[in-house]
Design goal:
The chain is mainly α. It contains 21 helices and 6 strands. It folds into 2 domains: 296 residues, Rhopdopsin 7-helix transmembrane proteins (Up-down Bundle), CATH 1.20.1070; 298 residues, Rhodopsin 7-helix transmembrane proteins (Rhopdopsin 7-helix transmembrane proteins). The strands form 2 sheets. Strands 2-1-3 form a 3-stranded mixed sheet. Strands 5-4-6 form a 3-stranded mixed sheet.
């Protein structure tokens, strides 16, 4: 042991063996993660907002959704960072914390599913005593015990594993600090630790699963005594979603942690791990929203009918006073009121622009990912902006093309809310990213010696994650406020997508508060971000004017030219629409300006960065050569 060095850091190999597919995997996993977050957020919001779901079953579902959100956050963000070239090195303490959170929340999920099985048993087998046996106090106690037990087991297991000596190698053949891959790196006998890990896995998986099976045996016995087929169907329907999630969750966990220790295959382990860290958390909200009618109905009520400003009784009275008005269940997007020949011409033009935009952004993504010379903070943010712009255009332009072909298009309330949410979210994210790119240029020009320290990979990832988080959080509040207003006619939106202004005009009650919140959000993301950019460029201009040589000044300006052009166009169009006085309102003018920031601005971004940036042009040539002429590459 004298010549051995103790390991202080681990290297997560992840998917490094799939170098050619890492960009594709990043996009796929990022989309799945976004859908998982939105799905769980919707379930928690619906369960909290709809009184009809204030029952033990949905209390446990809300707790499970919160646990799944934290669980995926601990695993997927580092995995996504590794896929886009972030450092795969993790300190020993960081690895221990990740393992602790992962084990604790995974155990908590298993115990919560067992609690949900017990809840179904009481609801079906003891319906008369159900309110007493599953009171609020009992539910809270069960959830608290599930979390406490999971965290205690996790703490003991993590401390036991990291009491092992690690003196090399330090390469973990996984994308996160899982139990067995870490144990196998120890430089001492690990048979006891592997046996304890197997025993605890058996306890955490087999015991809750056994309780669930026992609950369903009693449930089945009770259901078979029901004389009517309709009664059978109703009883089974309350258990279908839970059974589906249980089979997926415990099946994946058993395949990983209850197999023989000699059966070791790191590639297969990672594939199984993807199933229970990416796919299963996604399926939970999907199963409970697609297979559960009560959740579906509550989701519609929360998004389309309830009001934050009025109680349900007062809102109903307010709508009833309008006479024969009925609540709107769908909107109709008018689109462009033009002759059919002109609409077909516009369809062709916008389709070509959309295809060019997608191809240009895809080329920039590939060039930045494949060319090591572009693995810098500036191009990391450009990569993120191109990805966000691609999603942004996907939300709006296909729908606009459909309205051009048909002369109008119906859209349901939920579809309209989702389109508005993703449009505002990606637009806000783009504004934030442009502000961060301005700060990056300030640090690069004004503090060049400290640039690598001030803009290291961890800080860049933190900036990008913050832009995404706040970009989705604030629009989520805005959309929630807008679609909690009652809409009782008319239902024609004089626009080609569900923008906040045209939709708010259709509300049949006072919409002052949502309008103020939307305006405040516009001030934050447009004026706030623009001020940060202007402040950055004031310092940049001051630093550039101190450069003695004209060549040095030209070089410094050239690194900012593309960013300045995109900022002017982006913020100019957004400011005209969202920050102008109420009196200066014209629907036709709105649509014309909206075309500029939904069609032309996303095209301008990749064009400016590819035509005006020599490094990107060279990287694009290399990328195109490697794709179409591999023998020359």
């Amino acid at each position: 042991m004298a010549n051995r060095t103790w390991v202080s850091k681990f290297i997560l190999v992840g998917f490094s063996g799939l170098a050619d597919l890492q960009l594709l995997l990043f996009v796929l996993f990022a989309l799945l993660y976004a859908v998982t977050l939105v799905g769980n957020a919707l379930i928690v919001t619906v369960v909290g907002a709809d009184r009809r779901l204030h029952t033990p079953m949905y209390f446990f579902l809300g707790a499970l959704s919160i646990s799944e959100t934290c669980y995926t956050f601990a695993i997927l963000l580092p995995m996504l960072g590794g896929l886009v070239g972030a450092s795969r090195t993790m300190s020993r303490a960081g690895c221990a914390v990740q393992m602790y959170v992962f084990i604790g929340l995974a155990c908590n999920n298993c115990f919560l599913l067992a609690g949900m099985g017990y809840d179904r048993y009481l609801a079906i087998c003891h319906p008369l005593r159900y309110p007493v046996l599953m009171s609020r106090l009992v539910c809270a106690w069960l959830v608290a015990m599930a979390l406490l037990s999971g965290l205690l087991i996790s703490m003991g297991q993590t401390l036991f594993i990291f009491s092992l000596p690690f003196c090399g190698p330090n390469t973990i053949h996984h994308f996160f600090c899982d139990l067995l891959p870490v144990i196998r790196l120890s430089c001492t006998d690990t048979s006891l630790h592997e046996a304890v890990t197997f025993a605890l896995s058996l306890l955490v998986i087999a015991l809750p699963f056994g309780l669930i099976v026992l609950s369903y045996l009693y449930i089945l016995g009770t259901i078979l005594r029901i004389p009517s087929v309709a009664g059978w169907r109703k009883a089974f329907s309350t258990c279908a979603s839970h059974l589906t999630v249980v089979v997926l969750h415990f099946g994946c966990a058993s395949a990983m942690y209850l197999r023989p220790a000699m059966d070791d295959d790191s590639e297969r382990d990672q594939l199984i791990a993807v199933s229970y860290t990416v796919v299963t958390p996604l399926l939970n909200p999907v199963v409970y929203t697609l297979r559960n009618r009560e959740v579906q109905m509550a989701l519609r009520r929360v998004l389309g009918r309830n009001s934050l400003l009025l109680s349900p009784q007062r809102q109903l009275q307010s709508i009833m006073r309008r006479g024969n008005d009925t609540l709107v269940t769908e909107f109709f997007l008018v689109g462009f009121s033009l002759p059919s020949q002109l609409r077909y011409i516009l369809f062709t033009v916008f389709l070509l622009i959309y295809i060019i935009t997608l191809m240009a952004n895809l080329l920039i993504l590939m060039a930045i990912r494949l060319d090591c010379a572009l693995h810098t903070p500036m191009y990391f943010f450009l990569f993120t902006l191109s990805l966000s712009e691609t999603c942004y255009t996907f939300v709006v332009i296909p729908n606009m093309l459909a309205t051009l072909l048909s002369g109008g298009k119906p859209i349901c309330l939920v579809g309209c809310a989702l389109q508005m949410f993703f449009f505002l979210s990606f637009a806000s994210t783009n504004c934030s990213l442009l502000a961060v790119m301005g700060y990056d240029r300030y640090v690069a020009i004004c503090h060049p010696l400290h640039y690598s320290e001030l803009m290291n990979l961890r800080i860049c990832l933190w900036f990008a994650a913050s832009c995404l988080f706040f970009g989705f959080l604030i629009p989520g509040i805005e959309v929630y406020l807008i679609f909690n207003l009652p809409y009782c006619g008319p239902n024609r939106i004089d626009h080609f997508f569900c923008d906040s202004g045209p939709v708010l005009q259709l509300a049949c009650t006072d919409s002052k508060v949502p309008k103020i919140v939307v305006f405040a959000g516009g001030l934050l993301f447009i004026i706030g971000a623009l001020l940060l950019i202007l402040l950055s460029y004031v310092f940049i201009l001051s630093a550039i004017l101190k450069i003695s040589s004209a060549q040095g000044r030209h070089k410094a300006f050239s690194t900012c030219a593309a960013h300045i052009t995109v900022v002017i166009v982006h913020y100019g169009c957004a400011g005209i629409v969202y920050l102008r006085p109420k009196s200066a309102h014209s629907l036709e003018q709105d649509k014309l300006i909206a075309v500029s920031y939904t069609v032309f601005t996303p095209l301008l971004n990749p064009m400016m960065y590819s035509l005006r940036n020599k490094e990107v042009r060279l990287a694009l040539r290399k990328t195109m050569t490697s794709i179409f002429c591999p023998q020359r590459a």
